[in-house]
Design brief:
single chain, seven-stranded mixed β-sheet, alpha+beta, Rossmann fold, 2 domains, seven-stranded mixed barrel, 15 strands, Elongation Factor Tu (Ef-tu), domain 3
C-alpha cells in the first residue's frame, strides 16, 4: 500500500484517555498497522484523566507546534461514544485530525485555514464488526490507517459545517478590570506540578507578578526551579506556556492539597507598574 497522497512515510499520532494498563491502545495500533503496515505511530499521551475533554483539548493545543508535518492525529476522549455525537475528521494545511464531536477538537476548529470538515460515515473504512463503546479501535483507527495509505479525505463521509461542531467554552484565562489575570488549576502532572490555565504570554515580565490560589501563600513568579531552595514552593512559566506551581524536587499537589479546578489569579506586584518604573527612572 502506498503512502497517503504522496507521503511515503505517514505518521499517525495517538492521544487518548485509555491508559496503558489494558490492551486498548495496543488494539488500536494493531488495527492501524494491519491496514497500513508502513505507518509510523507516535504516542502523544494515553494518560489524560478519564473523560477529561478539557484536558485533552489543552494537550492537543499545546502539542500542535511539535507534530511532524502531515501527521494524522487520532484523538479519543469520548464519554459520549455510541451516542448520536458525530465522529469528525478535520483537515488543515498541516495535519488531519480524527475525533469525537464533543469539544475535544476545539483547538483545531478554532484554527485559521481549516480546509475540510466531515462526519465519518463511510463504512468501507471502518471495521466490519463494531463495538458501541470502542470507536477508537473500530472507527477512528481504521479511518486513520486508510488515510495514511492514500484514501481520499473527501470520501470519509458527509461534509459538516465547522460552525455546527461542538466547541468548549473559552474559560482558560481572563484579564480582569483591575489588571489581574484569572484562571484555574487545570491538572497536576506526574511530578505533582500544578498546571494553571494562565498564559505566560500575558505577563511580559513574569517576575513582576505573583500568583494567588486558595491554600497557598502568594508566590512570586520565578524563571526556574533553581531560583528556590530544595523543598520550597515556587511559581514559574512552564513548558506548556502557562504558569505552574511546584515544589523544588517535590510535589506541589501533595504539599498543598490544591485540587483541579481551583481558582488561580496572577496579580502584578506592587511598585512594578509601568508608571512606577518610569517614575523611578
Amino acid at each position: 500500500m502506498k503512502g497517503g497522497e504522496g507521503n511515503p512515510d505517514p505518521v499517525v499520532v495517538l492521544m487518548t484517555d485509555f491508559g496503558v494498563d489494558d490492551t486498548y491502545v495496543g488494539q488500536m495500533k494493531g488495527v492501524i498497522l494491519s491496514i497500513c503496515p508502513h505507518a509510523r505511530i507516535v504516542d502523544l499521551t494515553h494518560a489524560i484523566a478519564p473523560q477529561h475533554i478539557e484536558l485533552g483539548a489543552f494537550f492537543l493545543d499545546r502539542a500542535l507546534p511539535f507534530l511532524p508535518q502531515r501527521s494524522i492525529v487520532v484523538c479519543v476522549v469520548d464519554p459520549g461514544v455510541g451516542t448520536s455525537r458525530k465522529p469528525l475528521a478535520l483537515r488543515t494545511g498541516h495535519h488531519t485530525f480524527l475525533g469525537p464531536d464533543n469539544g475535544l477538537l476545539t483547538p483545531v476548529l478554532d484554527m485559521n485555514g481549516l480546509s475540510g470538515c466531515v462526519s465519518i460515515t463511510n463504512h468501507d473504512i471502518m471495521l466490519p464488526r463494531q463495538s458501541a463503546t470502542f470507536h477508537g479501535r473500530d472507527l477512528f483507527s481504521p479511518a486513520a490507517a486508510h488515510l495514511a495509505g492514500g484514501f481520499p479525505f473527501g470520501r470519509l463521509g458527509e461534509p459538516v459545517a465547522p460552525s455546527s461542531c461542538v466547541r468548549l467554552p473559552a474559560k482558560g484565562c481572563r484579564v480582569q478590570s483591575d489588571g489581574s489575570i484569572a484562571g484555574h488549576i487545570l491538572f497536576a502532572d506526574r511530578f505533582g506540578n500544578l498546571v494553571t490555565t494562565i498564559d505566560t504570554s500575558l505577563c511580559a515580565n513574569p517576575r513582576e507578578w505573583r500568583i494567588e490560589t486558595e491554600g497557598i501563600p502568594p508566590l512570586s513568579v520565578m524563571e526556574t526551579y533553581g531560583d528556590k531552595r530544595e523543598g520550597e514552593l515556587l511559581a514559574y512559566g512552564g513548558s506548556f506556556g502557562t504558569v505552574e506551581i511546584a515544589v523544588r524536587n517535590g510535589s506541589a499537589a501533595e504539599r498543598t492539597g490544591v485540587r483541579e479546578g481551583a481558582a488561580a489569579r496572577l496579580v502584578r506586584v506592587a511598585g512594578t507598574t509601568a508608571e512606577n518604573r518610569e517614575a523611578k527612572a
